[in-house]
Amino acid sequence: MPTFQNPTTDAAEASEALCGLAHASRVFEDPADTYTVLGDLLAGVRSLRQVLDQLATAHVTNRVRAHDDAGDQTAGATYALAATAELQQAAALLDGVHDRVDAAMSVSGRIAWHPALTAPGPVSRWVSVVFLQGQDADEVLTIIDRDGTDAAIEHLAGFDMGEETTQAALVNGYVYDTIPTGPLDHTTTTTGIYALTYNHDHGHVSLLRAHPETREPDAQAPAARTTPSRPPSRRHAPAVVEEDDWFAPSQSSSVSRGRAL
Fold first, then answer.
1. How far apart are CA 39 and CA 5, in angstroms?
2. Which secondary structure element, helix H or strand E, spans residue 195, and what is its range?
3. Which has the least CB within 10 A, 9, 162, 179, 200?
4. Mean pLDDT of the chain
């Protein structure tokens, strides 16, 4: 969570959040979600513009304290002024980025996304490969934090004994029509074969594998709806004014309840 007071801590958290967004946005299951992401990015660009301005101000107002490694204050002040000029130029360039993202969001909001066309075929269920919790899950959670979910899936795939794992899941009833998750669980899938669910708060990880089954279509079932998906309307925030505090903490809060293990 942001501190709204410590710039170094909040900068590190913002960097981590952007890395997570870069990873998560590789695939959009629902293209209508791009509109929401664009709106949040637009707000982020405005905030970044303000941060660059404030960094420039910090350099120029504190230039009397700037020295080089040899203790030369004149050289240090020169470096501070040079940094100020570069930061101001970067902030000005962000104005163009803001305008382009704003234009993209405007036209994206006019798109009515239709559901993807899927050919009839085998229906997959999910069989449990392995479920770890407590200390057994800590190693995998560490891999997720350090190397990402793909590395964790590759690690847990070593528990998959193929048909033996499938039969054990069928016998014990660990077969699911949909991926079982709780309110606080995170889910990641790879190429439609494996699904990883994990929860740092409750300390558990689970790997499931898709198990294809051939099912006869229900002749009495109604046809699937093909209503286009349109992103929700979103009101643009006003342009940034330097006196505004865009980092004031939000008054809203949310409470999530985890599922029992």
1. 25
2. strand 194-199
3. 162
4. 81
d(CA 166, CA 174): 9
pTM, full prediction: 0.49
- Pinpoint the alpha helices (H) of 198-258: none
Among 54, 61, 58, CA closest to 91: 54
- Rounded CA-CA distance 38/236 in Å is 11
Alpha helices in the chain (DSSP H): 7-24, 33-61, 73-108, 135-147, 149-156, 163-172
* Sign of the dihedral through C-alpha 236, 101, 95, 7: positive
* Contact partners, residue 152, CB within 8 Å, separation at least 6: 140, 143, 144, 196, 198, 205
Whether residue 202 is predicted with pLDDT greater than 60 in this model: the reply is yes
Q: CA nearest 33: which of 190, 225, 254, 231? A: 231
- How many whole angstroms separate alpha carbon 158 and alpha carbon 129? 10
